[in-house]
Amino acid sequence: MLSQRGLNRATLARQHLLKRAPARAIDAIEHLGGMQSQAPLAPYVGLWTRLQDFAPDELSALTDQRQVVRLHLMRNTVHLVSARDCLDWRALFYPLHAAEFSAHFRHGTEGVNRDALLRQAKRLLEEQPRARGELGKLLAGRWPDADLTALAYAAAHHIALCQVPPRGIWGKNGPAAWAPVESWLGTPLRPVPVDALVLRYLGAFGPARVADIQM
To answer: What is the number of H-type helices and E-type strands within the chain?
Structure first.
């Protein structure tokens, strides 16, 4: 049995928070199972805290080269993950995102054909990355009786989207513009079994109880 202190030390060690690790940024991001990135530059601080020789340009280059992406994932908040983990994991969280839409935005799209809406939204986003506000206005041109915010969030919650640079680049800034993950990375989603995700979670946060994993 682990003591409370032993559990604390084990988790911090897995998170590279007891001492800085001699690892590349991409390897650390995958080991951690992604990093919270609701604030676009937060992963830079998180990696500097954990890695021996981290420099901001390393993560900026990974972002520019599309080796990492920022997207709504766990808890429906923005996380930074490797392109590989994005393609493997995004579909596993679809039920969570769909439930969030139903809870908060469904009434704003009553009477709108969902499939037609998502086809139109994906076409617009594949033309060029767009901010939610712009997307909502464009969709409202076809569905003027619907709430334009709800129209945009229908796309955000039902299509796998990622935020694109320059947002998330150190020393730069830009709007929160979104593009379909599959077109941005040039690869279709390829969901893994959920037990593979659980094992990755334990590698980054274990030892853990079932309730911890669910959370």
So the answer is: 12, 6
pLDDT of res. 76: 85
State the amino acid at position 115 in one-letter form: D
**pLDDT at position 91 over 90:** yes
Q: E strands, the chain, where?
A: 35-36, 68-72, 78-82, 130-131, 161-163, 177-180
Tens-place pLDDT, residues 11-48: 999 999 999 999 999 999 999 999 999 999 999 999 99
> What is the C-alpha to C-alpha distance for residues 120 and 115, in angstroms, rounded to an integer?
9
Tokens 């709504």 correspond to 72
What is the pLDDT averaged over residues 150-170?
A: 97
Q: At what angle do helices 148-158 and 94-104 cross, to 10 degrees?
A: 170
Q: pTM for this one?
A: 0.93
CA dist 1 and 207 (Å) reads: 11
Helix (H, G, I), strand (E, B) or coil at 94: helix
What would the two tokens of residue 211 be?
């309730």
Amino acid at site 152: A
